[in-house]
Specification:
Blueprint (H helix, E strand, L loop, with lengths): L8 H27 L3 H4 L1 H44 L5
């Protein structure tokens, strides 16, 4: 089961800026590598699209992980509840 992560708004803001910078750097590097030096600079809209796709993919991964953690937690709680009910001799 995953750990609960608590983080402050200042840390979240700092992380968001670092993530955006990483996405932008990677977008420029990938576009220039694929299409030639300076392509990213001439096509800033494409850099933005690259960044949005990267962010959406990351968001999807986080949501899937969160849903899996929630499912594991619910199953564990239901198993504990069923065990407790059986221990009391109550019908399920």
């Amino acid at each position: 089961m995953g750990k609960l992560v608590r983080i402050g708004s200042g840390e979240l803001l700092q992380q968001a800026m670092l993530t955006a910078s990483d996405y932008m750097s990677k977008a420029v590097w990938e576009l220039d590598r694929e299409f030639g030096e300076g392509y990213a600079k001439k096509n800033p809209d494409l850099v933005g699209v690259f960044m949005r796709v990267a962010a959406a993919d990351f968001d999807t991964g986080l949501r899937v992980a969160a849903q899996e953690n929630l499912e594991e937690s619910l199953v564990a709680v239901l198993e504990q509840l069923a065990t407790a009910i059986r221990g009391e001799g109550l019908p399920l």
